[in-house]
Amino acid sequence: MFSEDTWIQTRENTRLSVSFSLEDYITERTGSLNERLKWLASNSNKMDRVSLEKGKLSLARLDSHTKEESKFEIFEGYLARFIKG
What we know:
Strand 1 and strand 2 (56-59) form a beta hairpin. The chain has helices spanning 4-10, 22-43, 67-84; strands at 50-53, 56-59. It is mainly alpha-helical.
């Protein structure tokens, strides 16, 4: 445990990536969520098996595959993300 004085002296020199202020944290997280939702809204029509209608996000069920086919699809997805950057 830190004493309050020690904490006050060292908290500015931490490597934490979040703010110690609740309001700053909520503001940052809300902004990040809004950015992602805007991206999803503008790109959902480009994604297979994804539907964004009437404010609801729906993902289509995956087809049944063998374990090997599933591994290949996962690898294919990672590869596509890597190539797109």
